[in-house]
Amino acid sequence: MLSMPAAGAGLLLGAGLAQLLIQAVTLTATATAPVPTVLIEIPWTLAAGLAVAVATIPVLAAALTIARRPDPAAQLRAAESV
Predict the structure, then answer these.
(1) How many CB atoms lie within 10 A of CB 49?
(2) 30: helix, coil or strand?
């Protein structure tokens, strides 16, 4: 199941990019770096829950689709007996 490691990697990559980019592009009205520097707070519990949901929901949808698929052999036997 590759979706969980991919969601975790995406979460870490997003946090790293946020740390790099927000500090690089944040300026004051006079186009100087703010003092003190920007504090980036990531709600890790909410982000982890969202990552788990993003990884789990497509797997569940695929499993439900496979479970609801009718058996083609049973359909052929039913059509043959008629």
Answers:
(1) 11
(2) coil
pLDDT at 16 over 90: yes
The Cα–Cα gap between 13 and 9 comes to 6
Buried b (16+ CB within 10 A) or exposed e, 6-19: ebeeebeeeeeeee
Token reading at 10: 């995406």
- Per-residue pLDDT of 27-61, as tens digits, reads 888 888 888 888 999 999 999 999 999 999 999 99
Alpha-carbon span 46 to 51, nearest angstrom: 9
Confidence of residue 24 (pLDDT cuts 50, 70, 90): confident
Positive or negative: CA dihedral 21, 19, 47, 12:
positive
17 and 9 Cβ atoms separated by less than 8 Å: no
